[in-house]
Amino acid sequence: FFEVGHLDKLKSWLSWSWTYICAVWFAMVLTMIYVLRSPLKLQDTLTSASVFLNTLTPKFYVALTGTSSLISGLILIFEWWYFRKYGTSFIEQVSVSHLRPLLGGVESSSTTGLFSSVNGEAEPRPSVSECKVWRNPLNLFRGAEYSRYTWVTGKEPLTYYDMNLSAQDHQTFFTGDTQQIKAEDTVMQKAWRERNPQARIRAAYQAIEMNHECAAAYVLLAEEEATTITEAERLFKQALRSGKREQRTIHGSFVRKNINLLVYIKRRLAMCARKLGRIKEAVKMMRDLMKEFPLLGMLNIHENLLEALLELQAYADVQAVLAKYDDISLPKSATICYTSALLKARAVSEKFSPEAASRRGLSTAEMNAVEAIHRAVEFNPHVPKYLLEMKSLILPPEHILKRGDSEAVAYAFFHLQHWKRAEGALNLLHCTWEGTFRIIPYPLEKGHLFYPYPGCTETADRELLPTFHEVSVYPKKELPFFILFTAGLCSFTAMLAMLTHQFPELMGVFVKAFFSTLFTPLGFFADKMESFMPSSFWHQLTRI
After folding, report:
1. Which 8-state DSSP code applies to residue 400?
2. Would 89 be classed as within a structural domain?
3. Are 246 and 206 part of one and the same domain?
4. Does residue 355 sit in the same domain as residue 440?
5. What are the TM regions of this chain, as residue ranges (predicted)?
6. Model confidence at 130, in pLDDT bands (50, 70, 90)?
7. Per DSSP, what are the bridge partners of residue 135?
8. Is the pTM of this model over 0.70?
9. Is the pLDDT confidence value at 104 over 70?
């Protein structure tokens, strides 16, 4: 341990002194060049170079500075495009990944899994599960909703990455033990993986021909082929009948597959009832489903229930659901946090006035509402811009990233109407939501009420959301140094080119004065060195 401690101290001392050693070495090189200026004929070289530069016309300098401006402008455009697309500087990335190993720089691995807490102690970073992509509890129907959007606008609302995740979900949920798999299940496994919607639909019909009671095939047709919610509901009811008949005849590993399939079908039937206006029926179906399968909380059926209860304006029932699921031990979501904020804001928002609040201060109820809004905004800071219609909404994806822009889109798409219905709630949100960012510690490696924001949110959201949507990023990334540097270089060289073209003689005088001023300290330093050192010493050193 003693030797290791001394070795670490030696390494730290060397790393600390490296900068000063480089400076001393650089000064020694300059001194040697000055001493050897006569044998190297540096004076003659500088004189000939000066004569050559004086013979050049102003047009050469215009071309030189103009070309420099053009090249730096192209680099700036590429750097800006790369930063907007990938969130980092290309030059910086190449420098870190290729040049740092050559220079001996190694990132410290001892701190990669730690971050400082508010009191300065080391705590583990949030695990990768915080960047886990979740199934959207309120995802739309592909045939009846997503496809209609494509027909009208010509834009694809779903990304391939999002649809591929859905295919994996269906394969995992609706497939039992591969050793006992049926022929129609094999067909459906391939159907979920098909990229072409028509190929998926043909595979579903092929599975139905093999077995008229193939519930998974009816599910695919309800999701993909049905062009209306009514038609989708009819196919889901057929799938439910087939699934129940199949459940009576199966045993073993197929039970798990069938239960997952039945839960999925019942949930989608409840969503169909909600979309068709039969909200009380939808609420009853969701409550029954949660009682029948209480261990399937990971499916977040309570979020479907919260949205339906808000539509009924059954705020007492909403509060009862929140009391059960807004627990410190349970994972949070934007639906939980913002619904809690909505209920507290609704109690005070009707009579809330910013002017009156600034004069008399906030009451206890108003303070609770503001704190709930701050809590919700810290969990997902992207939501308020959609609720306040500062940013346009798009169709929500089939998967969301918690605390990301995809979750904000999904929440605002279904819950904006509930905030509008509560009079004054959006006004209270507008007055208070930006105050959250004064509470969150800076730098943002530290959290306040929740874990710090994961670094993977922007990348995952860009994969989940369509390209025509401008992804919201928080915290905002500062522009890299190389973008600012190339922008300044481009502007400076363009200005030089323009001035040299317009005022060639004046610019020549200015450049000569600039360089003479620049080299004056060097001349002064050289004169001092010659007067300080004896001439015989320089003569002997030159001979050596």
Report:
1. E
2. no
3. yes
4. yes
5. 18-40, 60-83, 479-500, 506-526
6. very low
7. 399
8. no
9. no
The answer to whether 157 touches 187, Cβ cutoff 8 Å, is no
Q: Is residue 541 part of a domain?
A: no
**Cβ contacts of residue 372 below 8 Å, gap of 6+?**
337, 340, 341, 344, 345
State the first-to-last Cα distance of the chain, in angstroms, to the nearest integer.
49
Give yes or no: residues 471 and 485 share one domain.
Answer: no
At 517-539, the pLDDT tens digits run 877 776 677 677 666 665 555 55
How far is it, in rounded angstroms, from Cα 291 to Cα 288?
5
Whole-number Å distance between alpha carbons of 322 and 308: 14
Contact 307, 271 (CB under 8 A): no
Sign of CA dihedral 298, 302, 305, 310: negative
Among 322, 345, 372, identify where a domain stops: 322
3-state secondary structure of 402: coil
Residue corresponding to tokens 């591929």: 164
- Can you tell me the distance from the alpha carbon of 333 to that of 130, in angstroms, rounded to the nearest whole number? 12
Most confident range, picked from 253-257, 312-316, 375-379? 312-316
Residue reference for tokens 């500088």: 46
Residue 116 in domain? no
Return the amino acid letter for 518.
Answer: L
Q: Which residue has the higher pLDDT, 121 or 98?
A: 98
Q: What is the pLDDT of residue 502?
A: 83
Q: Which residues contact 539 (CB under 8 A, 6 or more apart)?
A: none
448 and 504 in a single domain? The answer is: no
Least confident of 136-145, 197-206, 355-364, 409-418: 355-364
Which residue is it, tokens 């000569």? 512
The CA angle 136-142-144, to the nearest 5 degrees, is 120
Look over the chain and give the mean of its residue pLDDT values, rounded to a whole number.
Answer: 78
DSSP track, 113-136: TEEE-TTS-EEEPPPGGGG-EEE-
What is the distance between the alpha carbons of residues 203 and 197, in angstroms, rounded to a whole number?
10
Q: Is 314 exposed, middle or buried (0-12, 13-18, 19+ CB in 10 A)?
A: middle
Q: Which of 425, 443, 478 is the last residue of a domain?
A: 478
Range 471-474, long-range pairs (CB < 8 A, 24+ positions): 471/405, 472/382, 472/385, 472/391, 472/405, 472/408, 473/87, 473/405, 474/381, 474/382
Question: By mean pLDDT, which of 122-136, 414-428, 443-457 is the weakest?
Answer: 122-136
Range of the domain at 218: 155-322
Do 301 and 160 belong together in one domain?
Answer: yes
Instruction: Tell me whether residue 46 is in a domain.
Output: no
pLDDT-derived band of residue 295, with 50, 70 and 90 as boundaries? confident
How far from chain centre, in Å, is Cα 155?
22
Domain harbouring 192, CATH code: 1.25.40.10
DSSP letter assigned to residue 174: S
Say if residue 369 is exposed, middle or buried (CB neighbours under 10 Å; 0-12, 13-18, 19+).
buried
Q: How many domains does the chain have?
A: 4
Spatial distance between the Cα atoms of 509 and 230, rounded to a whole number of angstroms: 83
Other CB atoms within 10 A of residue 85 CB: 10
Residue type, 210: M
Residue 162 vs residues 166, 218, 400, 401: alpha-carbon distances, Å: 6, 22, 9, 11
